[in-house]
Amino acid sequence: MSAAVRNKYRRITTKVLVDMKANGEKISMLTAYDYTMAKIVDRAGIDVILVGDSASNVMAGHETTLPITLDQMIYHASSVVRAIEKCLVVVDLPFGTYQGNSRSALDSAIRIMKESGGHSVKMEGGKEIAESVTRVLSAGIPVMGHLGLTPQAIYKFGSYAVRAKEEEEAEKLKKDAILLEELGCFAVVLEKVPAQLAEEVAKSLTIPVIGIGAGDGVDGQVLVIHDLLGMTHEFSPRFLRRYLDLYREMGDAIKRYITDVKTQDFPNKEEQY
Prior knowledge:
By secondary structure, this protein is α/β, with parallel strands linked by helices. 42% of the residues lie in helices and 14% in strands.
């Protein structure tokens, strides 16, 4: 979305995203988990910030997204919300807060909205979480869906391989996407699915489809900010484009600082009071 188009709106809302799809405007989405990063991302002109449960990986060092708690998600989300001026903030409902219990889903979503100030929540799954999605939506809380590779179900899948390559799973994904729209979700994320399937789903829905590893036929893209900036280096899937190599650049800067301290070059006379 160009700066001129984005400036038409005081804030990016769920309705704006639906309008963007209708107008053929692509949607940009990135994760952020803290105040400083969120301020940079928002000022750069991003449409949507996802406070992802990927904080469990990149911020806390866990192997999966499963360990992060609702309290921790609220902490990260509230830090992000305090930084933003224009973008829409979506907050992941963490594992265990909505699966199989729609009352828990509603309570968790209400806590996120009240305590963090976030604008919406994201939930992984299709038909199996329909009751929870409906209950959250009934409280007036916007919901973004998430299909394909759903990291909270990683132990069920057994790997991070591409999903829905087989016809049966692809048909289920298409039906789940339509169901999520019918239930009232304002957008759906498709993660790591074949590009042709993702494009087919995007064309079948009136709500935006945001892809990560889902090709260029969808309505927008999302990446983890640490991956985009090259702060992580172990993770190199095909869909990732690194725009910087901060892992190396930050390491080099820290090494220079250490050297300057050890050699008494820092602080110099101009850097003292």
